[in-house]
Q: What sequence folds into this?
Protein backbone atom coordinates (compact mmCIF):
# COMPACT_ATOMS: atom_id res chain seq x y z
CA UNK A 1 0.00 0.00 0.00
CA UNK A 2 2.84 2.39 0.76
CA UNK A 3 4.39 1.90 -2.68
CA UNK A 4 1.03 2.39 -4.37
CA UNK A 5 0.47 5.59 -2.42
CA UNK A 6 3.93 7.03 -3.05
CA UNK A 7 3.83 6.59 -6.80
CA UNK A 8 0.63 5.41 -8.46
CA UNK A 9 -2.09 6.95 -6.33
CA UNK A 10 -0.40 10.34 -6.17
CA UNK A 11 -0.03 10.34 -9.95
CA UNK A 12 -3.67 9.32 -10.48
CA UNK A 13 -4.80 12.01 -8.07
CA UNK A 14 -2.78 14.73 -9.80
CA UNK A 15 -3.86 13.73 -13.31
CA UNK A 16 -7.55 13.44 -12.49
CA UNK A 17 -7.65 16.60 -10.39
CA UNK A 18 -5.99 18.56 -13.20
CA UNK A 19 -9.08 17.70 -15.26
CA UNK A 20 -11.49 18.52 -12.39
CA UNK A 21 -12.18 14.83 -11.81
CA UNK A 22 -11.83 12.77 -8.68
CA UNK A 23 -10.71 9.15 -8.95
CA UNK A 24 -12.08 6.57 -6.52
CA UNK A 25 -10.14 3.55 -5.33
CA UNK A 26 -12.73 1.24 -3.77
CA UNK A 27 -10.43 -1.77 -3.82
CA UNK A 28 -8.09 -0.04 -1.36
CA UNK A 29 -10.65 -0.11 1.46
CA UNK A 30 -8.91 -1.81 4.41
CA UNK A 31 -11.82 -4.16 5.15
CA UNK A 32 -11.96 -5.22 1.51
CA UNK A 33 -8.19 -5.79 1.50
CA UNK A 34 -8.49 -7.98 4.62
CA UNK A 35 -11.30 -9.95 2.97
CA UNK A 36 -9.36 -10.33 -0.31
CA UNK A 37 -6.34 -11.63 1.58
CA UNK A 38 -8.52 -14.32 3.14
CA UNK A 39 -9.57 -15.71 -0.27
CA UNK A 40 -7.59 -18.82 -1.29
CA UNK A 41 -4.92 -18.12 -3.91
CA UNK A 42 -6.35 -20.70 -6.31
CA UNK A 43 -9.50 -18.57 -6.62
CA UNK A 44 -7.50 -15.45 -7.42
CA UNK A 45 -5.18 -16.94 -10.05
CA UNK A 46 -6.77 -19.78 -11.97
CA UNK A 47 -5.59 -21.94 -14.84
CA UNK A 48 -7.91 -21.19 -17.75
CA UNK A 49 -7.03 -24.02 -20.13
CA UNK A 50 -8.93 -27.11 -18.94
CA UNK A 51 -6.78 -29.41 -21.12
CA UNK A 52 -3.45 -28.23 -19.71
CA UNK A 53 -1.80 -30.07 -16.80
CA UNK A 54 -2.11 -28.31 -13.44
CA UNK A 55 1.38 -26.81 -13.66
CA UNK A 56 1.21 -25.38 -17.19
CA UNK A 57 -1.06 -23.40 -19.42
CA UNK A 58 -2.45 -19.89 -19.35
CA UNK A 59 -3.86 -18.43 -16.17
CA UNK A 60 -6.35 -15.68 -15.43
CA UNK A 61 -5.50 -13.15 -12.76
CA UNK A 62 -8.25 -11.88 -10.41
CA UNK A 63 -10.40 -14.84 -11.45
CA UNK A 64 -12.85 -14.66 -8.51
CA UNK A 65 -13.36 -10.90 -9.02
CA UNK A 66 -13.98 -11.46 -12.72
CA UNK A 67 -16.52 -14.20 -11.94
CA UNK A 68 -18.25 -11.91 -9.43
CA UNK A 69 -18.65 -9.20 -12.11
CA UNK A 70 -19.38 -11.53 -15.01
CA UNK A 71 -23.12 -10.78 -15.12
CA UNK A 72 -22.66 -7.04 -14.53
CA UNK A 73 -20.13 -6.02 -17.19
CA UNK A 74 -19.43 -6.91 -20.84
CA UNK A 75 -17.39 -10.09 -21.26
CA UNK A 76 -14.73 -8.23 -23.28
CA UNK A 77 -14.11 -6.00 -20.25
CA UNK A 78 -14.34 -8.70 -17.58
CA UNK A 79 -12.00 -11.17 -19.27
CA UNK A 80 -9.44 -8.87 -20.91
CA UNK A 81 -5.80 -9.26 -19.86
CA UNK A 82 -4.45 -7.02 -17.15
CA UNK A 83 -2.61 -3.91 -18.29
CA UNK A 84 -0.67 -1.27 -16.43
CA UNK A 85 -2.83 1.80 -15.71
CA UNK A 86 -1.06 4.05 -18.19
CA UNK A 87 -0.64 1.53 -21.01
CA UNK A 88 -2.91 2.04 -23.97
CA UNK A 89 -3.90 5.56 -22.94
CA UNK A 90 -1.05 7.29 -24.74
CA UNK A 91 0.20 8.91 -21.55
CA UNK A 92 3.53 7.06 -21.57
CA UNK A 93 4.43 8.34 -25.05
CA UNK A 94 3.09 11.85 -24.32
CA UNK A 95 5.07 12.07 -21.08
CA UNK A 96 8.24 10.76 -22.74
CA UNK A 97 7.92 13.37 -25.51
CA UNK A 98 7.35 16.18 -23.03
CA UNK A 99 10.26 15.06 -20.86
CA UNK A 100 12.64 14.66 -23.82
CA UNK A 101 12.62 18.42 -24.33
CA UNK A 102 13.41 19.02 -20.64
CA UNK A 103 16.01 16.33 -19.97
CA UNK A 104 19.51 16.21 -21.43
CA UNK A 105 20.10 12.63 -22.54
CA UNK A 106 17.80 9.62 -22.44
CA UNK A 107 14.54 9.72 -20.49
CA UNK A 108 14.85 7.16 -17.70
CA UNK A 109 13.16 6.78 -14.32
CA UNK A 110 16.24 8.30 -12.73
CA UNK A 111 16.44 11.30 -15.10
CA UNK A 112 12.68 11.86 -14.73
CA UNK A 113 13.02 11.80 -10.93
CA UNK A 114 15.98 14.18 -11.05
CA UNK A 115 13.95 16.61 -13.19
CA UNK A 116 11.02 16.55 -10.76
CA UNK A 117 13.39 17.14 -7.86
CA UNK A 118 14.99 20.09 -9.66
CA UNK A 119 11.54 21.57 -10.42
CA UNK A 120 10.51 21.22 -6.77
CA UNK A 121 13.74 22.74 -5.51
CA UNK A 122 13.39 25.69 -7.89
CA UNK A 123 9.71 26.27 -7.07
CA UNK A 124 9.74 26.12 -3.26
CA UNK A 125 11.71 27.81 -0.52
CA UNK A 126 11.81 24.62 1.57
CA UNK A 127 11.25 21.63 -0.76
CA UNK A 128 12.88 19.08 1.57
CA UNK A 129 9.62 18.41 3.40
CA UNK A 130 7.94 17.38 0.13
CA UNK A 131 10.97 15.43 -1.08
CA UNK A 132 11.21 13.51 2.22
CA UNK A 133 7.68 12.18 1.67
CA UNK A 134 8.25 11.17 -1.96
CA UNK A 135 9.29 7.69 -3.03
CA UNK A 136 12.31 7.00 -5.21
CA UNK A 137 12.64 4.56 -8.09
CA UNK A 138 15.65 2.26 -7.97
CA UNK A 139 16.18 -0.95 -9.95
CA UNK A 140 12.50 -1.57 -10.67
CA UNK A 141 11.47 -0.94 -7.06
CA UNK A 142 9.97 2.03 -5.32
CA UNK A 143 11.35 2.99 -1.93
CA UNK A 144 9.93 5.48 0.51
CA UNK A 145 12.69 7.80 1.63
A:
Amino acid sequence: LGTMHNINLQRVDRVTMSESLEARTPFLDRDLIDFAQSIPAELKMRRTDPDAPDTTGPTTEKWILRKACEDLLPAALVWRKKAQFDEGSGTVDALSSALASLIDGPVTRQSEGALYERILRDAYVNPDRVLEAAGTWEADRVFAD
Remarks:
- The first strand starts at residue 46 and ends at 47.
- Residues 91-144 form one domain.
- The first helix runs from residue 2 to 18.
